[in-house]
């Protein structure tokens, strides 16, 4: 049975609202900044800002979907960025070793949080609140409250480099082939299982629309310096996270645990190990975000990452991730991160006072959580 227009709108209502909100933000800030907001240079800067929040949001989706929370990611990112800066500036380590050790430290910190939550049964709110304070304290202690700078030129490649124009187009072409091949494989599999299969013309229109939108973005960015490397990292991690969440046994276990903990235990899912893995994965992703932040700043700062956890949580909730667990989308969380970064960027360009920026972001977070609660009550 072919879905009607009304059913499609109901299914994708939240996504439509997010896209309209993003367009409204773009129009308002473009008018108030005399078009500077949509300039190639500012769009490039906006997307680099989004990369950090988006990567944090990817890890946070897994945590929230499993019916937990992580309030320590901002302090953890600051600490890991400080470690990366120390290895680069004080010890002069080669970039590959700095990356590996920073990600390993993120893994250990994630395992630390996960062990307390999964095996010691301490509420994640308390564990990560303690981590938020402890990680910030460790960062201030090892840096003695001073900024570790300047980082090397090689460290700058992570957060400040750009793909050449030809490479951007080549990556887009490869991505198009991969997407088309994957959709063809899925279509063949659904036909073998005798499941409803959308019309091929509709699928081609959807894929074509996405590719045209991406191509327009690539051409716009190429008119400045090219596609920023952090944006490419975000896209790769978003696709990988979406695949893990929806197409793997681990991902299905995470959603099952968040949806019904008792049923998950009775069905044989190792709840403790899955939650430990979720926090470990989150720690690694925080490590990636920390490397990008350290590279962008060219330093490790004791104040780096302040309130980043709130941006990540807000991005997830705006993207439809339920704080009750069991519901969430990687792709929509990244779109939520783009909305949060768009507001930050636009308000900064308008020189809105910092206190007003905090008030606006707090109001948005409150509104998003209220909408999540209202939706669950209606369900």
From TrEMBL:
Coiled coil: none annotated. Keywords: Cell inner membrane, Cell membrane, Membrane, Sugar transport, Transmembrane, Transmembrane helix, Transport. Pfam families: BPD_transp_2. Its main location: membrane. The chain crosses the membrane at residues 12-31, 51-69, 76-93, 99-118, 125-142, 162-182, 203-221, 227-245, 276-300, 355-371. It is found in: Cell inner membrane. The keyword Ligase does not apply. It is a multi-pass membrane protein. The keyword Chloroplast does not apply. Belongs to the binding-protein-dependent transport system permease family. AraH/RbsC subfamily. Part of the binding-protein-dependent transport system for D-xylose. Probably responsible for the translocation of the substrate across the membrane. This is Xylose transport system permease protein XylH. It comes from Pokkaliibacter plantistimulans.
């Amino acid at each position: 049975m072919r879905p009607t227009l009304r059913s499609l709108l109901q299914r994708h209502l939240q996504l439509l609202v997010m896209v309209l909100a993003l367009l409204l933000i773009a129009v308002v800030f473009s008018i108030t900044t005399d078009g500077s907001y949509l300039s190639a240079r500012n769009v490039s800067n906006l997307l680099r800002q989004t990369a950090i929040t988006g990567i944090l949001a990817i890890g946070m989706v897994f945590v929230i979907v499993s019916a937990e929370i992580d309030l320590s990611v901002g302090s953890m990112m600051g600490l890991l960025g400080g470690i990366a800066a120390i290895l680069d500036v004080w010890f002069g380590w080669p970039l590959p070793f700095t990356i590996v050790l920073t990600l390993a430290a993120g893994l250990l910190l994630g395992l630390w949080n996960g062990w307390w939550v999964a095996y010691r049964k301490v509420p994640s709110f308390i564990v990560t609140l303690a981590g938020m304070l402890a990680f910030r304290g460790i960062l201030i202690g090892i840096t003695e409250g001073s900024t570790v700078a300047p980082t090397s030129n090689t460290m700058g490649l992570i957060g400040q480099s750009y793909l050449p124009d030809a490479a951007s187009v080549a990556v887009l072409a490869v991505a198009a082939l991969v997407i088309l091949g994957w959709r063809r494989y899925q279509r063949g599999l659904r036909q073998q299982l005798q499941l409803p299969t959308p019309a091929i013309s509709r699928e081609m229109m959807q894929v074509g629309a996405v590719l045209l939108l991406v191509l327009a973005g690539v051409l716009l960015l190429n008119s400045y310096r090219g596609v920023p490397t952090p944006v490419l990292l975000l896209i790769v991690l978003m696709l990988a996270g979406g695949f893990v969440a929806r197409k793997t046994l681990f991902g299905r276990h995470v959603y099952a645990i968040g949806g019904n903990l008792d049923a998950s235990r009775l069905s044989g899912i190792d709840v403790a190990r899955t939650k430990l893995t979720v926090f470990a994965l989150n720690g690694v992703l925080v490590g990636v975000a920390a490397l990008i932040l350290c590279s962008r700043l060219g330093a490790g700062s004791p104040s780096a990452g302040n309130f980043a956890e709130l941006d990540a949580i807000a991005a997830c909730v705006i993207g439809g991730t339920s704080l009750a667990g069991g519901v969430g989308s990687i792709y929509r969380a990244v779109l939520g991160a783009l909305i949060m970064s768009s507001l930050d960027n636009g308000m900064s360009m308008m020189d809105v006072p910092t206190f007003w920026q905090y008030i606006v972001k707090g109001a948005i977070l409150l509104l998003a959580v209220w909408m999540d609660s209202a939706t669950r009550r209606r369900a």
